């Protein structure tokens, strides 16, 4: 009996009972790992078993939180868009003069996409599915509306101060900023294979980021104010 008790005590010492995990922490872990799994393997190729193993939870727990595999995928989409929009809201653009605000937004978008390739892959995968899951989301449209409203505010202040020209559509401008930042990640592998990886070094990425912001600014600035960018050595 003593030997058995000692063996039992030794086993318990080697394998301490796992502390009860915070439900919200478990949910965040699942979403983080699911983002990697879906972005790497797509909706059809992603495996719930793999997500469960990596998060030290169970398929049953994942389904408890998110319903099913497609429900988890949809929540990952919501989380991905929420992160980029949350970062934009933290830029406090209203406190900057219009040129600085637009430059900061462009540089943020480029840097966010560069540092979050999983987000880009998720958007690409959802486009393969023709936006079907995004259309079912109750939050994504609302998450993205403030991005256009922020640009509207920057453009309005720029026109009122006589720096920005008339006729710039905020939705179109958002498209342009997104396109410049998106291609840098979505086509990095093929572009580097064909032309070399010079643009994807730290220095190359900094140059691209600066020039992408310059292109946007030159598009919205009145002609007489474009020279100010050149004087800054941009």
TrEMBL record:
GO molecular function, one term: DNA binding
Ranges of compositional bias, category Basic and acidic residues: 9-25
Presence of keyword Signal: no
Keywords: DNA-binding
Keyword DNA-binding found: yes
Domain HTH tetR-type residue range list: 24-84
Pfam families per record: TetR_C_29, TetR_N
Location of the region described as Disordered in the Swiss-Prot/TrEMBL record: 1-25
DNA-binding region(s), residue ranges: 47-66
Protein name: TetR family transcriptional regulator
Native organism: Ciceribacter sichuanensis
